[in-house]
Design brief:
The complex is a heterodimer of chains A (584) and B (349). By secondary structure, chain A is α/β, with parallel strands linked by helices. Chain A contains 23 helices and 17 strands. Chain A has 5 domains: 90 residues, Glutaredoxin (3-Layer(aba) Sandwich), CATH 3.40.30.10; 212 residues, NADH-ubiquinone oxidoreductase 51kDa subunit (Rossmann fold), CATH 3.40.50.11540; 84 residues, Roll (Ubiquitin-like (UB roll)), CATH 3.10.20; 90 residues, NADH-ubiquinone oxidoreductase 51kDa subunit, iron-sulphur binding domain (de novo design (two linked rop proteins)); 56 residues, Alpha-Beta Plaits (2-Layer Sandwich), CATH 3.30.70. Chain A is 41% helix and 14% strand. In chain A, a hairpin with a 5-residue loop joins strand 3 and strand 4. In chain A, helix 7 packs across helix 10, helix 10 crosses helix 13 and helix 18 packs antiparallel against helix 19. The longest helix of chain A has 19 residues. By secondary structure, chain B is α+β, with helices and mostly antiparallel strands. Among the domains of chain B are: 74 residues, Roll (Ubiquitin-like (UB roll)); 58 residues, ADC-like domains (N-terminal domain of TfIIb), CATH 2.20.25; 67 residues, no CATH class. In chain B, strand 11 and strand 12 form a beta hairpin. The longest helix of chain B is centred in the C-terminal third of the chain and has 19 residues. The two termini of chain B are 50 Å apart. The chains are: A alpha/beta (584), B alpha+beta (349). At the A-B interface, helix 17, helix 18 and helix 19 of A face helix 2 of B.
């Protein structure tokens, strides 16, 4: 019998460490013969802390939203032979949501212990690299990846085999492999979950890629804000080295040496851009280089370099172990395999999901994500983070594939899906993302450095009620200019949130500018709070709670808000028990 | 060789050349602010963008190699609009004080704004105010006028190999800074002024030129007298008086490079302490003498010492301000005429 506690960052944040300790204590007290284990995130972050029970017959029972007390109950129920009756058992709906997914890159996440290489090997790990080195030439490996149809999961969707091949064909004795784990989009945590839950999948993927392109050194550029991921990678690398999967002469074939090291990023979003990442790796300020030359020609220290993100590498062992055809059998004609998405924002079941390409956005948000939190109305979903765009309700049936997503004006991106409901102001949302890119611009090129700032200022004015006719056209004009003239991908995509919200929610911009109103009632400066004399009972609660002393009125008399003093904090609206405060 | 078409004209270009290089070789104007042929390619200002048939975006001509069959427009409507936007954005975060700016008349930003008719910025918003650094006597640093072209950073790193300055902070707040934001000084930099030479705006200026308009000076090419390298530069002369020095980029010896002495120490010419004739000490006082008088005096003394105490009683020390030829002649004189090996040079270490 075994109990496994999910201890990814999400589980730990939800209290998994306490749960683990409580289980440990209770198992000791009850002298039950239960082994206790750890695993990474299964993806259902909204159910954390999650505990899996594997009985002697190998059957799994999942307990969710466990805490210290409930953990003790679980052990007691197991000992009493009535584990299935425990109140924490996962609901059918959540099991179904899990069943709709197709897990390739997450195949081991939430199942194996990420700190134990034997569990990875037991799950079929390191078979792919063994096959590559013993049976295949690097060209055959690249061909297998070509057959799989895998495209880069970092955002641009470039065919992975092509990048491998370019680095392989590029002349030079020394070549490098780099993993971009500088995941920086707000609301995105795909890479972190893979590394925390299955670090060996990344390591094996990189060894295969190193073999394919002819590199003997790989570097994982992971952001320093991911301490648990770095810790588990270090453990995994040490174990792989001990087993001979990293180091000199892998599998004793006299063919291939390969080792990995970690570089912790210092916290700049732009370092997710591959050439800025290379600058940072070389010890310089993270600023993009002009392309061409591409990294495959001149990368790290000017040598041919292949850069891919974590999810891309994590798919590689599956492809080489099961064949490219098996991967290509999943997904659509132009987008093969699966895609990870981090569901965040106003969604019921936030977390990490892996779905086959071709599934519709509706199916992901409503079928798997459970729909909108508090049963509000769906308004839009931001895909691709600050570089992406919003997709409104009318495109909910768009299938997830590179081409279809791009046609909406958004991008596949690395997998961030921020869901917005009817209470989200789209101008405010665009302002949020632009504020992010504006601050994270490296400052190298004029359009991005100065242009995003001027766009942001226009949005600030619009949300403060100082917008002027013509502002929308000016935003579009400046946005298109920044997109077409910026040096790197950050600038070339930074205006997307603004341009797509204008495309789909132009009426909201117009309401802000022309009517000085925020339809979603989010932009403070545009709100007016008033008290309906018909409904006001003169209870004085609003006046007593008003931090600005803007409400006048005595007991049992109609109260009134002095608009000159009102700071629009909404406190009166919250505290009124008679619905007498109206906001316009 | 590759064949490209630029503004409808067929051009043969060496393989590996950028679009910008091809254009300049064929006298086709493409404006730049961050490009300098002596420095590494940067691609930051985006003013040199051109339209290439089939390309998704406008391309920076300074970073893009001209390839076979490329069809390029350097002044299309789209290109001109983008350039105006670049200038507009730069001006929106730049003091509009050309009337009193020291750089007026010699400013690349002013030139491109004039050429593309951008009178004033159309974007209104924050303008960051930085303190002006004029704590040293020769270089004035006004970050408010900096357009982040990065030429100063590159010249300091790549040519001078000092790397005293670099970019700090991000995005709109990015600026060129010194370690710990200290004022420019001899402790952190060599004060060579290479950065001043390459700055396209009034962000870095030579303080010796304060009060002098660029069109008021006559440039007189000369050789620096301060050491044996023999750098060529232009003396800038206003009303018959040397104001300061500017490099002469086609100089064979030094290109645009100058050191702190060559660039800033022409003021010694007007020093009241400057010695302009030989001096001979008579009755404990230095008295002005003619060259013949001085040379006769030295010859007589040397001969006397050599006769009385032998040639090895004499030693010669030469100056680094002399040329190689002069140094050669000096040691020759010591060895052949005086007859001693006692000769040394102040720069020997």
């Amino acid at each position: 019998m075994k109990l496994i506690v999910g201890q990814g960052s999400c589980g730990v944040a939800a209290g998994a460490v306490k749960v683990y300790k409580a289980l440990e204590e209770e198992i000791k007290n009850s002298s039950a013969d239960i082994e206790l284990g750890t695993t990474g995130c299964i993806g259902s972050c909204y159910l954390e802390p999650i505990v899996d029970f594997i009985d002697d017959a190998g059957e799994k029972t999942t307990f969710v939203t466990v805490d210290g007390e409930k953990a003790k109950e679980i052990v007691k129920d197991i000992v009493a032979g009535k584990a299935k009756e425990n109140e924490c058992i996962i609901g059918d709906e959540d099991v179904e949501a899990m069943a709709k997914q197709k897990r390739i890159s997450l195949r081991n996440c939430g199942i194996i212990n990420p700190e134990n290489i034997d569990e990875y090997i037991e799950a079929g790990g390191y078979k792919a690299i063994e096959r590559c080195i013993k049976e295949m030439t690097p060209e055959e490996v690249i061909e297998e990846v070509k057959v799989s149809g895998l495209r880069g999961r970092g955002g641009a969707g470039f065919p992975t085999w092509f990048k491998f091949n370019a680095a392989r064909q590029s002349p030079g004795d020394v070549k490098y492999l780099v993993c971009n784990a500088d995941e920086g989009d707000p609301g995105a945590f795909m890479d972190r979950s893979i590394i925390e839950g299955d670090p060996h999948a990344l390591i094996e993927g990189m060894i295969v890629a190193g073999y394919a392109i002819g590199a003997s050194e790989g570097i994982i550029y992971v952001r320093a804000e991911y301490p648990l991921a770095i810790k588990r990678l270090n453990i995994a690398m040490a174990q792989a080295r001990e087993k001979g999967y990293l180091g000199a002469d892998l599998f004793g074939e006299g063919k291939f040496n390969f080792d990995l090291r970690i570089k912790a990023g210092a916290g700049a979003f732009v370092c997710g851009e591959e050439t800025a990442l290379l600058e940072s790796l070389e010890g310089n300020r993270g600023m993009p280089r002009p392309k061409p030359p591409f990294p495959a020609q001149k990368g790290y220290w000017g040598k041919p370099t292949n850069i891919n993100n974590v999810e891309t590498f994590a798919n590689i062992p599956f492809i080489l172990a099961n064949g490219g055809e098996a991967f290509a059998a999943v997904g659509t004609e132009d987008s093969k395999g699966t895609k990870l998405f981090a569901l965040a924002g106003k969604i019921k079941k936030g977390g990490l999901v892996e779905v086959p390409m071709g599934m519709t956005i509706r199916e992901i948000i409503f079928g798997i994500g459970g729909g909108i939190a508090n049963d509000k109305k769906f308004k839009a979903v931001q895909m691709g983070g600050p570089s992406g765009g919003c997709i409104p309700a009318e495109f909910l049936d768009t299938p997830i594939d590179y081409k279809s997503i791009q046609e909406t004006g958004a991008i596949m991106g690395s997998g961030g899906m921020v869901v917005m409901d009817e209470t989200t102001c789209m101008v405010d949302m665009a302002k949020f993302f632009l504020d992010f890119t504006c601050k994270e611009s490296c400052g190298k090129c004029t359009p991005c450095r100065e242009g995003t700032k001027r766009m942001l200022e226009m949005l600030e004015r619009i949300t403060e009620g100082k917008g002027e006719p013509g502002d929308i056209e000016k935003l579009i004009d400046l946005g298109e200019f920044i997109k077409t003239t910026s040096l790197c991908g950050l600038g070339q995509t930074a205006p997307n949130p603004v341009l797509t919200t204008i495309k789909y929610f132009r009426d909201e911009y117009e309401a802000h500018i022309n009517d000085k109103k925020c339809p979603a009632k989010q932009c403070k400066e545009l709100l007016t709070y008033t008290i309906d004399p018909e409904k006001c009972t003169g209870c004085t609660i609003c006046a007593r709670n008003c931090p600005a002393s803007a409400i006048t009125g005595t007991l049992k008399e109609t109260h009134k808000i002095n608009q000159d003093l009102c700071i629009k904090c909404g406190k009166c609206y919250e505290v009124c028990r008679f619905g007498a405060v109206a906001v316009e | 060789m590759v064949t490209i078409t630029m503004n409808g004209k067929e051009i043969k270009a060496e393989k590996g050349k950028t679009i910008l290089e091809c254009a300049r070789e064929n006298n086709i104007y493409i404006p730049t602010l961050c490009y300098d042929e002596t420095l590494s390619i940067y691609g930051g200002c985006r003013l040199c963008v051109v339209e290439v048939e089939g390309a998704r975006n406008l391309v920076a001509s300074c970073t893009t190699e001209a390839t076979e069959g490329m069809v390029i427009q350097t002044e299309s409507e789209k290109v001109v609009k983008a350039r105006k936007n670049v200038i507009d954005l730069l001006l929106s975060n730049h003091p509009i004080d050309c009337l009193t700016c020291e750089k007026a008349g010699n400013c690349d930003l002013q030139d491109v704004a004039y050429r593309y008719g951008v009178r004033e910025p159309s974007y209104i918003g924050e303008v960051i105010e930085y303190a002006v650094d004029d704590a040293n006597p020769v270089i004035a640093r006004d970050p408010n006028k900096c357009i982040l072209c990065g030429k100063c950073v590159r010249v300091c790193d790549e040519i001078q190999v000092t790397h005293a300055i670099d970019f700090v902070d991000r995005g709109f707040g990015a600026t060129v800074g010194t370690p710990f934001n200290e004022p420019i000084s001899y402790e952190i930099c060599r004060l060579c002024g290479q950065c001043v030479s390459v700055c396209p705006t009034g962000a870095l200026t030579n303080r010796q030129f304060e009060g002098t308009r660029p069109w008021e000076v006559e440039k007189v090419t000369t050789t620096c007298s301060l050491c044996g390298v023999g750098c060529t530069y232009d003396l800038n002369v206003k009303d018959g008086r040397v104001v300061g020095v500017t490099p002469k980029p086609d100089s064979i010896v030094n290109g645009s490079s100058l050191c702190v002495k060559g660039r800033f120490h022409t003021d010694f010419a007007y020093s009241p302490d400057r010695i302009t004739t030989p001096l001979i000490k008579k009755d404990g006082e230095f008295v002005e003498a003619s060259w013949d008088e001085a040379l006769d005096f030295i010859a007589e003394k040397l001969n006397k010492i050599k006769a009385e105490d032998g040639p090895d009683a004499i030693a010669g020390l030469s100056s680094a301000r002399c040329t190689n030829e002069e140094n050669y002649l000096f040691q020759k004189m010591m060895k052949a005429a005086i007859g001693t090996n006692n000769v040394d040079h102040c720069a020997r270490t």
